[in-house]
Amino acid sequence: MNLTRTAALSVAGGALAVWLAAAATSGTRPAGPVPVAPQSSADVRGEELKSEIARLHERLRPSAAPLQTRDLFRYSAKQPATQAAAGTPPGPVPLVLPMLAALAVKLVGIAEDVGPDGPVRTAMLSFRGDLIFAKEGEPVGTQYRVARISADVVELTDSTAGSTLRLALK
Questions:
Q1: Model confidence at 81, in pLDDT bands (50, 70, 90)?
Q2: Cα-flanking dihedrals φ and ψ of residue 29, to 5°?
């Protein structure tokens, strides 16, 4: 039994020595081409995405300041075709008073109360950003006066021009 144990230990020790010797050899191996794995479509898309991100970052931080050549909050009046072709400056724009008045005053609503002589109506007008409640004969701003209020129409008289402006509910 002693002999078999010694033989088994010798064979295991020899195998271990051969294994260690094979791992420790520093022999030179011929240098061959290194196989390059083909790029997957995810890698290609990742590279495209990186270049697009870099381009967008450059647009966020431009190196040159933009030149402001026009005022974005001021509109210029269009010139008639004859004046634009001739290169002459435009003449004064004629004012259309009823159109300007219609833009300045809007009828919002009409309220009606029961009175001893019939209904008493109050016009609700939007005038230059303010809400005005006016009855017949009362002024609206410095330019207008309420002349008549019917069920769905209000008539205003212009004190400067003497014209009548009719506002109807829509």
A1: low
A2: -110, 145
